[in-house]
Description:
The chain has helices at residues 3-18, 52-57, 64-77, 102-119, 129-136, 142-145, 163-168, 173-188, and strands at 36-37, 43-47, 85-88, 123-127, 150-152, 155-160.
Amino acid sequence: MTLDDKAKLLAELGNVAQGCTACDLSETRTKVVFGSGSPEARVMFVGEAPGYNEDIQGEPFVGAAGRLLDELLKEMLGITRDEVYIGNVLKCRPPENRDPTVTEIETCKPFLMKQIEIISPVFICTLGNFATRTLTGKREGISKLRRKPIRVGDLFVFPMFHPAAALHRGDLYDDVRKDFEELQRFLDSPPQIEAEPSQMELF
């Protein structure tokens, strides 16, 4: 699939998402936050859900956590957000930034799965508990799973702390940086990891 083909398919999927009313979040959102970045990204970052700034601007990771993500991408990986793809499990902001519900995740999940199918990344970095659980089916918390690559189908899932964790708890800032350090090593030489039969199928 060419770059133009991927861009066109993502644009069409984004248009569908813009009109989605499948769950109650459509009644409280300001804007749908579909995703942004390279349609042929080798690395994709998946967070939990849009926050206040994202809901206003309609773009993922544009608040303080997004600025930190940009800094870490540049400093630790030597790349910009234009070279990766960034999205969330949910495309609409939950009121007051509450946790997503199971129903909301299952309702919105097909959009994420289709994004992954179109982009076809080699690596997906899941930021936090909800993204990691959604894409691996594992129930352990992010503190236990972080920095441990998981093979899901034909791609690798690399669980990491969400950048927002460093903003909410200053003592986690070094841990967030270490996640990116380990990610860089992993991207340079990914190990051979067998897919586990119990893991969730992506497609």
